[in-house]
Amino acid sequence: MVRLVRCGTSSCLRIVDFYGQEETFGTHALNLCKKMFSEGHEYIDILTFGLSDHLLKKSGFNRLDHSQLEIVVPNHFEPFVQKNVKVGFFSNIKNLADLRIYKADGDQDRPSLKGYENE
After folding, report:
1. Among 23, 74, 111, 113, which residue has the fewest nearby CB atoms (within 10 Å)?
2. pTM for this structure?
3. What distance in Å separates the CA atoms of residue 28 and residue 41, rounded to the nearest whole number?
4. Does an H or E element contain 24, and which?
5. Residue 46, Cβ density class (10 Å: 0-12 exposed, 13-18 middle, ≥19 buried)
6. What is the pLDDT along the chain (119 residues), one digit of tens a residue?
């Protein structure tokens, strides 16, 4: 599942969920990369726990280093906040090797537009 996020004249693709065989992730990432370039988006990001660093790196992703300030991958677009935000999670699963979490699994993947809370 991918969400297109726009802010002014800029846009990005956010992978908010993945369901499938993990060995196919790289193929899906490549297709999204083609879409990103053809449609003029700035980047693709994914907020996940459980996919191996090797798989993500092989698919073209780099882990964000929150301690450096030169690269910012905003988490909040509605309203837009130009800063890196660490996102944590809680689980009662004892075997974390079986756990897969994505942005859409929690409340991080919802708009916070003015007036939205009143709907």
Report:
1. 23
2. 0.81
3. 16
4. none
5. buried
6. 999 988 889 999 999 999 999 999 999 999 999 999 999 999 999 999 999 999 999 999 998 888 888 888 887 777 777 888 888 888 888 888 888 988 877 766 665 555 444 33
